[in-house]
TrEMBL record:
<dbReference type="InterPro" id="IPR040323">
    <property type="entry name" value="EIPR1"/>
</dbReference>
<protein>
    <submittedName>
        <fullName>Tumor suppressing subtransferable candidate 1</fullName>
    </submittedName>
</protein>
<dbReference type="InterPro" id="IPR059104">
    <property type="entry name" value="Beta-prop_EIPR1-like"/>
</dbReference>
<feature type="domain" description="EIPR1-like beta-propeller">
    <location>
        <begin position="7"/>
        <end position="251"/>
    </location>
</feature>
<comment type="similarity">
    <text>Belongs to the WD repeat EIPR1 family.</text>
</comment>
<dbReference type="InterPro" id="IPR001680">
    <property type="entry name" value="WD40_rpt"/>
</dbReference>
<keyword id="KW-0677">Repeat</keyword>
<keyword id="KW-0853">WD repeat</keyword>
<dbReference type="Pfam" id="PF23609">
    <property type="entry name" value="Beta-prop_EIPR1"/>
</dbReference>
<dbReference type="InterPro" id="IPR036322">
    <property type="entry name" value="WD40_repeat_dom_sf"/>
</dbReference>
<dbReference type="InterPro" id="IPR015943">
    <property type="entry name" value="WD40/YVTN_repeat-like_dom_sf"/>
</dbReference>
Length: 253
C-alpha cells in the first residue's frame, strides 16, 4: 500500500454519529455509533495507526437503540455519552445516557477490520439524563477543559446543564434555560467552546446560530440566517476563539 493511499473501513450498519476521543493522547481514536432498526446497534472504536497507515477496531454493543449523537469525555477515555431513539408508549423518543466501555478496551483495539465481531462486548450504563419534562434529546456536550463532571444536553428547545456525581453514576440538573419564540423551536446541535474559560456554548436551531453564557444560561449573541436551510452542526476553531464553522441542509458551510 502506498503511503498516500486511502484507508477504508466498512461498518455493518449505517452510521451518522462520530466523535474523536480527545482524552486518549497516545493514539488517534474515533468512536462511531450505528443506526439499525432491526439489530442491536454498535459503537465502533476506531484506531488509526499513522505509521503503518492501517485501521484497528473494536466493537461494543449499544442495545438500547439507534445512535443519533455520540460524544466522548475529555477527561476519562473510558466514558462517553449517546443520544438514541427508543419506543415508549407507542411513540419514538430520543433519550441520552452516559456509558463506560470495558476497561480492557480503553487502551484501544488490536483487531483488524477483517476480524470477526464474535467477541463483541457491551457498554456499562452509568446514568440516564432524565428528559421526561424537557423533550427529545438532540446532543450532549462535555465541558472541554474540565474534569468530565459537567455536561450540557439540548432537548427540544431546552438547554440543560448537568453535574455528574458519584463516579458519573448520577446526573443532577444544576441549571437550565429555554429558547423562546414563535412556532415549535428545536435545537438541532450545539458545541461547548474551549475558549473564554469554557463559559460559552453555541447552538443551532432552524437557520440560526446562537451563543449562550453557561454561567447565566442567557443568550449572548445570535447569527440570523446563518444558512438558507436547517443548520445541522457546528464547531469551534480550537486555535482561534472567534472562529466558528457550521454546516446545513443548503449544502454550504
Amino acid at each position: 500500500m502506498e503511503d498516500d493511499a486511502p484507508v477504508i473501513y466498512g461498518l455493518e450498519f449505517q452510521a451518522r454519529a462520530l466523535t474523536p476521543q480527545t482524552a486518549e493522547t497516545d493514539a488517534i481514536r474515533f468512536l462511531v455509533g450505528t443506526q439499525s432498526l432491526r439489530y442491536d446497534n454498535q459503537i465502533h472504536i476506531i484506531d488509526f495507526d499513522d505509521e503503518n497507515n492501517i485501521i484497528n477496531k473494536n466493537v461494543l454493543l449499544h442495545q438500547v437503540g439507534e445512535i443519533w449523537h455520540i460524544s466522548a469525555s475529555p477527561a476519562d477515555k473510558g466514558v462517553l455519552a449517546t443520544c438514541y431513539n427508543k419506543t415508549s408508549d407507542g411513540k419514538v423518543v430520543t433519550c441520552a445516557a452516559v456509558w463506560r466501555m470495558p476497561k480492557e478496551l480503553e487502551s484501544g483495539s488490536h483487531e483488524s477490520p477483517d476480524d470477526s465481531s464474535s467477541n463483541t462486548q457491551t457498554l456499562e450504563l452509568l446514568c440516564h439524563l432524565d428528559n421526561t419534562a424537557h423533550g427529545n434529546m438532540a446532543c450532549v456536550m462535555w465541558e472541554p477543559m474540565g474534569d468530565g463532571k459537567k455536561i450540557i444536553s439540548l432537548a427540544d428547545n431546552n438547554i440543560l446543564l448537568w453535574d455528574l456525581q458519584e463516579s458519573s453514576t448520577k446526573a443532577v440538573l444544576s441549571s437550565s434555560s429555554a429558547l423562546e419564540g414563535k412556532g415549535q423551536l428545536r435545537f438541532t446541535s450545539g458545541r461547548w467552546s474551549p475558549h473564554h474559560n469554557c463559559t460559552q456554548i453555541a447552538t443551532a436551531n432552524d437557520t440560526t446560530v446562537r451563543g449562550w453564557d453557561t454561567r447565566s444560561m442567557r443568550q449572548i449573541y445570535s447569527i440570523e440566517n446563518a444558512h438558507g436551510q436547517l443548520v445541522r452542526d457546528l464547531d469551534f476553531n480550537p486555535n482561534k476563539q472567534y472562529y466558528l464553522a457550521s454546516c446545513g441542509d443548503d449544502c454550504k458551510d
